[in-house]
Specification:
Number of domains: 1
CATH class: Alpha Beta
Oligomer: single chain
Strand order of the largest sheet: 1-2-3-4-6-5
Number of strands: 6
Order of helices and strands: HHEEEEHHEEH
Radius of gyration: 19 Å
């Protein structure tokens, strides 16, 4: 990475890397945009982030890998597919010297979109049930 300053945009973040890494980052970005056209791009925790009904996914470049962050649920749901990569509770490391699994990224993004939508629906339903007006009974 060329700069230690926190980037203000995803473009600025990507521009800080060598051309070969920029190409990978841009392809990851395009893959996510294609699956989540309604998501908003932002920088969170100093890295590219997509938000749609809450945090969707984050990604970042490092010296030897791309970090992909789908929060713990994304990793849990795709344990079999990510088992060949180094991963933690909420992160997956895709080595730069191996092909990036764009199809897996698509699947994870679709999963996270559905998961966030379900959480949003539950929140709305909960608000409706806790904020329903009470009937006032008339005394005769």
């Amino acid at each position: 990475m060329k700069s230690t300053k926190t980037p203000n945009s995803m473009d600025e973040y990507i521009e800080n890397f060598p051309k070969d890494v920029q190409t990978i980052l841009q392809k990851i970005r395009n893959t996510i945009q294609k699956e989540a056209p309604d998501a908003t791009e932002t920088i969170s925790y100093g890295i590219p982030t997509f938000v749609q009904n809450g945090s969707l996914v984050h990604f970042a470049a490092y010296a030897k890998h791309i970090g992909f962050y789908a929060l713990p649920s994304g990793n849990i749901a795709f344990q079999k597919e990510i088992s060949k990569y180094k991963f933690g509770k909420g992160s997956i490391q895709f080595p730069l010297n191996e092909p990036i699994p764009y199809v897996l990224i698509k699947k994870i993004v679709k999963f996270r979109i559905a998961e966030n939508l379900e959480k949003t629906k539950k929140k709305v339903q909960k608000k409706k049930t806790t904020h329903t007006p009470k009937k006032i009974s008339k005394k005769s």
